[in-house]
């Protein structure tokens, strides 16, 4: 019985796949009449590029290689009804995702994440339209780019806590995760560490589920949406059972955090994205709709910031561990501006350009998202004489952009000084790598908050500590080792690594 049910599921999936393939092959043939697709691997009948689409770790390197192999800024692949266009230069990204953002700002629909796991109404996954604009407005009102001061005290408090923790444990990535989760709960919901309780665990599980479900090729239901109708009890439908569990986690943290903030709002709310948004509801609003938008926007903020900020800081610390000379330059700048034993605050940022350059170079050297989350083009387009069909996934390859030797000589080298001009300031003529936060209208609305948190964390850690390798069995400095996570993912993160945070002076003890 089990084998018959499994076979039935496989036959259903195969039949659906064949129908989709025939339909899209016919559409592909008709689209060739006027303009060709951009260069890319040769398309085979029916399956097209099914076996050419990268599926193993660090797939951005594969797309970069395709760009070189076919001598083109843009690459096209298609399979299983999906048309994929990869943009490998800053010019192509600017021309399409920014200058033509009106038709390049939507999102592909995700059956697993959006529908089965329930994330479809959150800002990150919403198609471009009024619902998306409404949620984005919530962010701009709560955290306007030019007015981050209301959150500075939260970031300073969280960073001081981090400084005390990292000197006493060797689980760096876990320490960063705890730090980020606590201060993001505070910034987004106004929930303090002592009240975080189950929210931290639920949040971690929700973010982890997104990472699993978002991995290319993880679930066949993304390529064959008809599989969503398979009952969750059916053999082979493990994806449905996982989706149900993950949807329950998302619902619990979304509702729980919002209700906690709303109750706090009635008493003495601390400033947060949710509290600010609740205060701006007026009598003319549809309150239920408005609260629904706030829930979705705030959950997107929490999930997005928690994982990406951890990875960004981990990448930065890993680079500093491997390059003590960069640390030495940063220490000299900090000592000159602050004096030994003093902690920085946000007013010091203009006087610490090398710290800013370290953050910029970290984004360039190991981009947080080397392949930006796909945009969706909403109508047929022509670019550089090539046909870009409606419904194509448009992916910016930031790895290719920031490892372009013509623009960034010796790109594999971690060199923050490339962003410093002859006057010792940030060079405005060097491309700003912080557009790893997205392109055009889909740029992350929490970008400035993330940059502020990374600045104060980086400056504070380097003011207090030297980042050194672990000691070997003889008490000598071991060779530092940092390896990249080989698992398929859109996030570029290091594997867990060991290091020590060694206090630079006795005065530091006063802060720890």
Automatic annotation (TrEMBL):
Keywords for the protein's UniProt record, in alphabetical order: Heme, Iron, Membrane, Metal-binding, Monooxygenase, Oxidoreductase, Transmembrane, Transmembrane helix
Cofactor requirements of the protein: heme
Annotated transmembrane regions: 7-26
Binding-site list for heme: 444
Pathway involvement of the protein, from the record: Secondary metabolite biosynthesis
Coiled coil: none
Family matches, as InterPro entries: Cyt_P450 (IPR001128), Cyt_P450_CS (IPR017972), Cyt_P450_E_grp-I (IPR002401), Cyt_P450_sf (IPR036396), Cytochrome_P450_fung (IPR050364)
Organism superkingdom: Eukaryota
UniProt similarity note: Belongs to the cytochrome P450 family.
Protein name: Cytochrome P450
Organism the protein comes from: Collybiopsis confluens
Phylogenetic classification of the source organism: Eukaryota, Fungi, Dikarya, Basidiomycota, Agaricomycotina
